[in-house]
Amino acid sequence: MENFFLEGTNKTPQLDFNSNEGRFLIAGRSIPENSIEFYKPLFEWLDNYINQAKSNTTLDVKLEYFNTSSSKCLVEIFRKLEALQQKNDNVLINWYYEEDDEDMQESGEDFQEIIDVKIVLNEMEEEE
Amino acid sequence: MNLNDYYREMLEGEVIVSYKGAPSQPLFDGILSVADERLAVIEQKSKVRKKVYHIMIEALQNVYHHTQGEGVQKSESPETILFVLSKNAKGYEISTGNHIPTSLVATLQAHIERINQSSADEIKQLYREQLHGGEISVKGGAGLGIIDIARRSGEKLVYAFEDTDDNNSFFSLKVKVSA
Predict the structure, then answer these.
(1) Structural domains of chain B, with CATH
(2) What angle do CA B100, B101, B102 make, to 5 degrees?
(3) Measured between alpha carbons, how far is A14 from A6 in angstroms, rounded to an integer?
(4) B103 to chain A, minimum CA–CA distance in Å?
(5) What residues contact A102, with CB distance under 8 A and at least 6 apart?
(6) Which of A42, B97, B106, B137 satisfies CB 3.0 to 4.6 Å to B82 for a cystine?
(7) CA-based Rg of chain A, rounded to a whole angstrom?
């Protein structure tokens, strides 16, 4: 199947989903007014991926900002990864946050609490 | 109070960005980008900068959703919105003002009151419950926006409702961030 790639903008994240390697990335800012519209093509792509997945899938999330409507979409993506895990795929989510960004760290903890996939929190050193 | 009175009150402290007028998406993008640039200069702590910026995004999107086909009657000035980001000795204040249909006031007020009466930990639980259970609406908010704002701010939300005509009320919200 084709990979899913979308360049980032100042309101929407870069989406780089490589189906062959089972390596996914969401990076940048996710603050569109209509998040569902933005993420819908990815949801559909993931549904296809689940049906022909590799044995290992890793999602890296490196978001600087995301709005609450995007957080609902992230839940939706993570739920799809849960479904993948139920099909015996090894699934891992890496949640990155910048040093001192306690809010982003807590967001990672929120997802750990409600999602049944291993989410590893990774602190990054600040690039300034 | 009329809109100008609200606006004057919001303009206390050192104003970083302010706006009174019609809402539009390009305008909100502009406000965010100006605030982003100014904050990068005046606020050294990236943690505070991010918190303020994040709350601004959420607050403006709340205003945006309220002004999008939510049944606000097009009478005299219901399209006017207010936005102010200011700095004072304690930190930052993000203030918004917009019209909402009076029929929504009771629900919104109960929502904010519930948040204001909750501890930080209760707000966190409330957020997680909504994130876990709430449906994604086309609007996208699912009631999370104001909970998110309160959680990040860590302070009580200051708000007011005032009837402006038979159908509309003016909703003003002030969010504080200590620096």
Answers:
(1) 3-178 (3.30.565.10)
(2) 110
(3) 6
(4) 24
(5) B47
(6) B97
(7) 14
Residues of B in contact with A106 (CB under 8 A): 124
pLDDT the model gives residue A54:
72
pLDDT < 70: residue spans in chain A: 53, 126-128
CA of A39 vs chain B CAs: smallest distance (Å): 12
Q: Which residues of chain A are within 8 Å of residue B61 when distances are taken between CB atoms?
A: 31, 33, 67, 69
- Work out the average pLDDT over B126-130: 92
Residue among A102, A110, A126 whose CB faces B131 most closely: A110
Q: What is the ipTM of this complex?
A: 0.89
The answer on pLDDT for B135 being more than 80 is no
Please tell me the distance in Å from B15's CA to the nearest CA on chain A.
24
Tell me the mean pLDDT in the region B128-156. Answer: 79
A vs B: CB pairs below 8 A: 72
Higher pLDDT, B85 or B80: B85
Q: Which domains does chain A have, with CATH numbers?
A: 4-124 (3.30.750.24)
Question: Positive or negative CA dihedral for B112, B116, B120, B121?
Answer: negative
What residues in A contact B144, CB-CB < 8 Å? Answer: 68-69, 71-72
Query: B151: which strand partners?
Result: none
Q: What angle is formed at CA A71 by the lines to CA B170 and CA A116, rounded to 5 degrees?
A: 145
- Which residues in B lie closer than 8 A to residue A80 (C-beta atoms)? none
B84/B102 Cα distance (integer angstroms): 23
| Secondary structure (3-state) at B154 | coil
- The length of chain B is 179
**Helix, strand or coil, per DSSP, at residue B130:** helix
A89 touches chain B (CB under 8 A): no
